[in-house]
Amino acid sequence: MEVEERATVPVTFDRNETPAVIRLEGAIDIGCAADLKAVLLEALASGGAARISVESATGMDVTAVQLLWAAECEARVSGMVLALEGPIPEALRATLEEAGFERFPLARDAEHASEVRE
Q1: Which of 18, 21, 47, 72 is deepest in the core (most CB within 10 A)?
Q2: Count H helices, E strands: the chain?
Q3: In a domain? residue 31
Q4: Residue 8: which of 68, 56, 59 has the closest Cα?
Q5: 47 is in which domain, residue-wise?
Q6: pLDDT tens by residue, 23-61
Q7: CA atoms in the 13 A half-sphere facing the CB of 99
Q8: HSE of 34 in the Cβ direction (CA atoms, 13 Å)?
């Protein structure tokens, strides 16, 4: 008899933190794209700032990158701050940079920009 292991959820959204935090863990790929999209839409609907933590992510496919890119573009248009938070694992850094994420806001830069606006 096989024992089914309970996998960790790769995409979580902590609304109780200020600002809210979207956490990506493990391999973020087509298998969790629906969950990622739902969480990103929920964060965008909240209208407040949100951070995306990729510290525990081990990889990201093109689907995940496209969802993040689209969410950041939508956030920017609506005046919301959606920024990457914390360290970016080296294995993930090249993927994100090749996709143009060198322009994706980082939390420390977003905080500075909001301080300047106030």
Answers
A1: 72
A2: 4, 4
A3: yes
A4: 56
A5: 11-117
A6: 999 999 999 999 999 999 999 998 889 999 999 999 999
A7: 19
A8: 1
Distance CA 97, CA 103 (A): 9
Confidence of residue 114 (pLDDT cuts 50, 70, 90): very low
The residue behind tokens 């629906």 is 34
**Is residue 49 included in any domain, yes or no?**
yes
Which residue is associated with the tokens 């200020």? 18
First to last CA, the chain: 61
- Cα separation of 51 and 19, whole Å? 7
Per-residue confidence (pLDDT) for residue 7, from 0 to 100: 53
Q: Which is nearest to 99 in space by CA: 68, 77, 74, 78?
A: 68
DSSP state of 1: -
Residue whose pair of structure tokens reads 């959606």 in the numeric block: 82
Instruction: Write down the residue that tokens 């248009």 correspond to.
Output: 77
User: What's the pTM?
Assistant: 0.80
CA distance 26 to 60: 9
What CATH number does the domain containing 43 carry?
Answer: 3.30.750.24
